[in-house]
Structure formats: structure tokens, C-alpha cells
Amino acid sequence: MDQSDAVPIGELWEERRFLLDVAHWMLGDPGAAESVVDEAYHRWYELSDAARRQVTVPRSWLAKTVGGICLDRLARPGRDAAGHGEGHGAHPSEAEAEAEAEAGRVVLNALTSLPTAERAAFDFRAFGMAPGTVAGIVGRTEPELAELAERARQWLRLRRTRSTTPQQHDAAACAVHRACVTGDGELLTSLLCPDATAFFDGGGKVRASTGPVHGCRPVADSLLTLVAPSPHTTLTTHSVNGRTGLVARYGGRVAAVISLDVSDDRVAQVWVMLNPDKLRSWNHRPT
Predict the structure, then answer these.
(1) What is the side-by-side strand order in the sheet with 192-201?
(2) How far apart are CA 166 and CA 243, in angstroms?
(3) How far is it, in rounded angstroms, from Cα 31 to Cα 87?
(4) What domains does the chain contain, in order, with CATH numbers?
């Protein structure tokens, strides 16, 4: 995964808002608009890495895709705006077949320190792959996959944070916050383990990085790009899963929640939640 895939929070959320406006204008239904935008992002992630790199203006590609989906749903008789109808999705496309093959490659190259099932489930959560795709590869049901993914994450957390005190964690998190706010790449890199890894969970609903970022410098670059200063973006420290983490807001709404796994005095793993669905609870909390 190339860290150049990282996109500033402001761009991610303005892009999704724009696409929702386009779909809502065409269909007149906010629920259907949400469905259309989700499908457009699904098609974006169905593209191969090489095909995505050839798209010079992703927002234009996504807008064109949203428009095409809306026109298709409006034109087909017996099909409601939300896209339900007979035969929908009956024949897998070439892009879907390619996504299946890519999923297989990812599973084969997953974290070697985990058992096979946990390894595949972990990749499903980290890469945002379709649960059904990974379930078919691993031979487990989707609920079993979710449980395995959580078990894998907890296992990795315990492995990394066993020797870290709460004071060390808080100090590291506050230092990371300071480096991100000031845009100090050298400081941020020094706060990360050499083999640090960052995971970005966009849930296929925003144009987030499609895989883990490895190495202290690439991780630092990705984080600084994501939280790049803008008039509407703020970054604060906040309790995340019982430990000090970071919360990024765009236009007053929570746009990203960042949790950190600290080993001794350095950050070993960074978990960035960007999925709008999973951030709803954060945006309904009292200020």
C-alpha cells in the first residue's frame, strides 16, 4: 500500500457530502441517496490498484458513477429508487472476480503471527473487504469472522502493550497529538516504532487507504496527510477504548477516531476509524 493513497479528512468528507447531494437531487430520497453513494464507493474499491491510480480526479469518477447508478435506477421499470429488483447482482462482473482474487492474495500474505482463521478475519476488518468474500475463503460464517477479527486485534494489542504503563501511553499519545497539530514529520516519525503499522477503516464508505501502511515514516506521512490543517479541521486528545487517543473533527462533527497501541515509549500500531456508520455514536454524544 502506497502512503500516497492517504487523503485529508476535509477532502474525504466534502467529497462524500457532494456525492450525497448529487444523488439526493436526482432521486429525491435521502435514504436512496445513501445507498447510491455506498454503491459508488463499492465500485471504486472493486477497481484494481492499478486502475485506481489511473483515475486522475477520483471525485469526478465517483460523481459520474453516482449519476450513472441514479439514472439506471430511475429508468428500470419495477425497480425502486433504492435499487431493489429482480436479478440485481445475479452475475458477478469482471471487477468482482478480480476482487475475489485480490482477497485471496491478501489472505495468503496476512500477518504470519496469527493462526490462519484469525489472520484472514483480521485482514477482512483492516482492508474493508466484503465479509462474504473472506467467509468463502476461510470457510467460516460472517458472525464467526467478526469474532475472529476482534480476537486477533485483542491478541495484537496484548502483544504490543504488555509492558506499557498508562502514564507512558498518555505521554506518547500527547506527543503524537503535538506532532500532528504542528505538522512536525520528524518528531512524529521519532515517536513511532520502526516497524509501526497503521490501519484505516473507511468501511468502503469514504475514499480511505485500502490497506495497512507499514514503517515509521510512511505511517507518519499518512497521518499528517489525513489530519492536515484546514479552517474546518480540529484534532484533540480524547479517551478512546479506555486509553488516550485522538479525535479529528471536520466542521464540528467527528470525522476520524484514532487509537494508539504503545510499546514502551513508542507507538507500535495506529487504528484510524473513518467509517461514517461507526462514527455515528461519536456524533450523538453530549459535547
Answers:
(1) 213-214, 192-201, 266-273, 253-263, 243-250, 233-240
(2) 8
(3) 22
(4) 9-75 (no CATH), 110-158 (no CATH), 163-283 (3.10.450.50)
Short-list 9, 36, 54, 27, CA closest to 226 = 9
Give the tens place of pLDDT for each residue, 76-131.
Answer: 655 444 444 433 333 445 554 454 444 344 333 434 445 545 555 555 444 455 55
Q: Which residues contact 268 (CB under 8 A, 6 or more apart)?
A: 160, 161, 192, 193, 195, 196, 197, 261, 262
The label of the residue with cell 496484548 reads 158
Q: Give 233-253 pLDDT, tens digit per residue.
A: 999 999 998 889 999 999 889
pTM (two decimals): 0.63
Euclidean distance between the first and final Cα of the chain, in Å? 36
Distance CA 282, CA 198 (A): 21
Is residue 198 within 8 A of residue 268, CB to CB? The reply is no
Distance CA 234, CA 21 (A): 24
> What DSSP assignment string belongs to 132-178?
HHHHHHHT--HHHHHHHHHHHHHHHHHHHHTT--HHHHHHHHHHHHH
Asked if residues 259 and 243 have their Cβ atoms less than 8 Å apart, the reply is yes
